[in-house]
Amino acid sequence: MTLRLGFGVSGPLGQRWFEAARTRALIEGALHGGVAHFDTAPFYFDAERRLGDALRKLGRNEVFVSTKTGTRRKGHRLIKDFSDVGIRADVDQSLRALGRDRLDLLYLHGPTSTEIDACMPTLRLLKREGKVERIGVCGEGEPLRRAIGAGCDAIMGPYNIIDRRHERIFVEAKAKAVMTVAIAPLAQGLLDRRFFPPHDLADIWRMARAGLRPRYRKKAIAAAREAIGPAPVAEAALGFVFADPNIDFVMTTTTKPGHLARSLAAARGSIEPLLYARLKNVALDPPFDGA
Ligand SMILES: NC(=O)c1ccc[n+]([C@@H]2O[C@H](COP(=O)([O-])OP(=O)(O)OC[C@H]3O[C@@H](n4cnc5c(N)ncnc54)[C@H](OP(=O)(O)O)[C@@H]3O)[C@@H](O)[C@H]2O)c1
Predict the structure, then answer these.
(1) Residue 66 is inside which H or E element, if any?
(2) pTM (predicted TM-score)
(3) Is the predicted pLDDT of residue 289 greater than 80, yes or no?
């Protein structure tokens, strides 16, 4: 059974302090569970190489892999670079790290609408050269809409119980047969009432990420947790996103095999109608107006 669940090889999964064997076991678990769509990026430390190695060793090089361009590590900083030279360098590095001769999907990572327009000739050329099969934009707000108009094959943007800004953009994308990928379906883990306390380094990483760049209002998180009630968070939060017919793939990630199992269960089932109605009615304060 092909799942609409995607697995992100990002965050701790590419970092030196998180053993490569653990990353491989999670990738293997996702594959065995039916996941056939993975996402990664060159700036997720060693993630691309770990994903490429795992897929090769497991004999699963045919699965769909997306990666990104436009953000690069320079020392401890992340810099943006949407130049023709920068994109080509990223693509060549990703092909080497993943051990592939073509990228299934290359996203521009967080571009402005103007940057999308400026990058399109290079992206189209990369498709003609056979290095990239599909092009897309991963971001937020108006650039996602611009990506649809510019002729991209895919868009990737946040969508969850408390962040519904992109609902209409996903509708517009579907109407134009553009692939839609929802990220942050668990609001980066914050929808789980057991978000605290930390038990290991990966938990500390998760908390630091949420603390350094807060994206959600505390009131909204509390309202969503209350609406989820005793239901397992993955089944509720992922189920909510799976229930939207305009979302092709729901991209999540985890460092824990137990959490992966819950995400797989959510992908195989469907959300209970009363729970869905409760989650739909979570009051967004202020209401999102659709980006
Ligand atoms: N969010 C972004 O800014 C962004 C940007 C570009 C691309 N992406 C792509 O989207 C993927 C998804 O990332 P995301 O962080 O946005 O996804 P998310 O699904 O909203 O959150 C993932 C977090 O939720 C926790 N989690 C996972 N399963 C859980 C469960 N069953 N119960 C409780 N907590 C659970 C994980 O922590 P544990 O490790 O503790 O399970 C993880 O830190 C990334 O891997 C990446 O490929 C994301």
Answers:
(1) strand 64-69
(2) 0.97
(3) no
What is the distance in A from the centroid of ligand 1 to the CA of 219? 21
CA of 238 to the centre of ligand 1 (A): 11
Farthest CA pair distance, the chain: 52
Specify which residues 138 forms β-bridges with: 109, 156
Q: From CA 26, how far away is CA 158, in angstroms rounded?
A: 23
Q: What is the pLDDT of residues 98-138, one digit of tens each?
A: 999 999 999 999 999 999 999 999 999 999 999 999 999 99
> How far apart are the C-alpha atoms of 235 and 189, rounded to whole Å?
13
Interacting residues of 249 by C-beta distance below 8 A, sequence separation 6+: 4, 5, 6, 37, 179, 180, 181, 182
**Tens digit of pLDDT for each residue in 224-271?**
999 999 999 999 999 999 999 999 999 999 999 999 999 999 999 999
Look up the CATH architecture of domain 5-186+230-273.
Alpha-Beta Barrel (3.20)
Is residue 202 within 6 Å of ligand 1 at its C-beta? yes
